[in-house]
Structures are given as C-alpha cells and as structure tokens.
Amino acid sequence: MKEDIRKTIKVTLTESRIKDAWFDFGTRELREGMVCFYKATDALTGDWLFKTCVDEAEGKIIIKALKCPPGKAYTQMEGSTMIFQKSILKEFVYDIISLTYANEDDRIRREVISELDQVPSFIKENFDVKKYDEATGKSAIGKNLVTIVQEKDIKSMIILFPMERAWPMAQVPPETGLKEGPIKKMIEEAEKASIDEIYSLASDRLGMAKDEVDKLLDLLKSENKVIFPSSGYVKTVR
User: Looking at the whole model, is its pTM more than 0.70?
Assistant: First the structure.
C-alpha cells in the first residue's frame, strides 16, 4: 500500500524560515530553529496546513496542525502536535504511536498503543514500527511502540500525522475510503450506472469485494455525493 499512500497524501513546502522562534509547551520556553510551513492534501480527509519546528539543541522535531479539514473531529485537532525525538538509531527520530478516537460526546481522545496487532496495517506497511526501548535505549511504562523516520524526512512525518490522528476515525476503513475517487469516476462515466456493473468494475480494477463497495456507496450516499434514482442503479450528484 506504500505507493497508494504517497499518491493520496501530497505534501508541499510553502514557506521555509532558516531561523525563527516558537513557544515549546513541553519545556515552557521560547525555542529557536528552522521553521517551515507545509500544505498537505489527503484524499481521505481533505486539506491540512502544518508548521514544523526543528529543535536541534533538544534533538526533536515538532509537527503542528494549523488548519484541518472541516468537521467536528478535525476541528478539535487544530493546534495539536506530534513530536519526533532523536533515536539511538543513527539519523532517525521516533514518535510514540497513539491513535485518535471519538467518545460518546464526539470529543476526540488519544490512546497510546502497546500491542503490535493494535497498530493499523496502513501504518505498519508504510513506516518502521519498533519497541520503545529499541528506539530509545531505555524503558518507560506505557510507552511500548514507536514509529521511526529518518530525521531529514519531514514530509513522511507530516504524512504520519493524518494517518495516526485522522484515519482511525474514518467511517470506512482507509483502504476502502481511498478508493472513493475511482468509484465515483466509474459512476460518472456511466452517468446512471448499474450497481452490478459497479461491482464488476470495482472487482476488476480495484480488487474490491461486494460488501466493500456497498460500504463505500452507503458513505457516498450519506455525504450526498451519490443518489439511487431507481432500484439497482446509482448516479453521482453534480
């Protein structure tokens, strides 16, 4: 799935400042270093704007979400950060894996992941996952698993942000949601498509099972992107 991720989350540098300052809420002091701004377009969730702060003295990189896609869940992520710290693995930094979920009041919460089978496949397939002690040379209660990224690869750190913080809350599995575009295109090409035809095309072109297509069509209907004009047919909303 690695190639799919690189194609569906596009990260673009919009501004680079060789030296700037920011307030570090962890150390509660002003820090200085390189500050950059990036736009990220995620096919699954929408557009993001990130600020990155490289603190060489502390050996960490801060990824901060300045602007998030619309919606109750994403709005709550504005201002949130992901911190990558220097690893004992040369030229790598690590991030403690925590996934986001919404509680019964639609307030988002984060949960630190301690078991490998709890890590979503789209993270394991695209990032190196290691135990905390392997990455840091020390142990800590509740900090069991981390992702590691090359310290110069800021774009990969930004890609990891929506994957950890936003994708776990998707109404359908990300592997299915990322196929929304191709499915809509199939329907648009046919103008008024037979659902059986969509099943066949989705199977041939995307390797999708019938129940996976049904989940995606239900999601598109709930978002008013498609309608079912008559029994057995589907049409995009223009």
Answer: yes
